[in-house]
Amino acid sequence: MKKMIENVLPVAVENDFIVSDHGDVSAVYRAVYPEILSRSADEYEAMQAGRVRALRALPPGSIFLQQDLYRHRVVSRGEGDPGSFLAQARERFLAGRTYLRHACYVTVTQTAPGRTAATSRVSALITGNLVPRQVLRPSAVELFEATLGQFARLMAEADVTLERMREADILSTPARAGWLERYLLQLQAPGDILIKDLMLQPGVTV
């Protein structure tokens, strides 16, 4: 029997939002920052001030999470025009060298107002609603969506490009690991799938 990771974890994905069982709503972005050492000191100060303005635009109770991933990669041959003198010189100089490829993901979470942490004494199962009423109101989600649009515009003014990840990018398929699975299991590529079925008869196989 196959199980997708979203059926195992206490989260769901609706309308490109990740919704937890406590009512927290999260949006995920791919972030593209300017190349390092490509700006002057004054420009970096302006970019930092712009990012601060974008964070201040988020509503109270929001959580901003930035994940920077650096993966070792090797420069491969065959890129560019093989007959070009510059391409041949590049291959001789760079082919086989390692470098760090950077990927950045930003998650903005709106926590459920008035949520109490679940303990042995307090559980969400003894409340009147399993999901906070604020999350069930369409107006609350629409307001958070508008706030995210303003946040993305302010980040763009700070020279940071945000690309919203959709449901197809977040969730996994039988042949591809989605962003959620890669985030939790620290997978390097969508093709790296760790959650698989176990068969105990006639032997232990995956």
Query: H/E order of the elements?
Result: EEEHEHEHHEHH
Flag low-confidence runs: 124-128
Mean of residue pLDDT values:
77
* Secondary structure tally: strands: 6
Give the N-to-C terminal Cα separation: 12 Å
Biggest sheet descriptor: 6 strands, antiparallel
| Coarse shape | flat
- The count of helical stretches stands at 6
Percentage of residues in DSSP E strands: 15-25%
SSE-based structural type: alpha+beta
The radius of gyration is 22 Å
**Fraction of residues in helices?**
25-40%
Quick overview:
With 206 residues, this protein is an alpha+beta fold. The chain has six helices and six strands.
Task: Outline the structure in words.
It is a single chain. About 30% of the residues lie in helices and about 20% in strands. Strands 1, 2, 3, 4, 5 and 6 form a six-stranded antiparallel beta sheet that branches. It is built from six helices and six strands; from the N terminus they run E-E-E-H-E-H-E-H-H-E-H-H. By secondary structure, it is α+β, with helices and mostly antiparallel strands. About 0% of the residues have low confidence.
Summary keywords:
alpha+beta; flat; 206 residues; single chain
Annotate the secondary structure layout.
Elements: E1 11-14, E2 17-20, E3 25-32, H1 41-56, E4 62-74, H2 85-94, E5 98-110, H3 133-136, H4 138-157, E6 161-164, H5 167-170, H6 179-185
Antiparallel strand pairs: 1-2, 2-3, 3-5, 3-6, 4-5
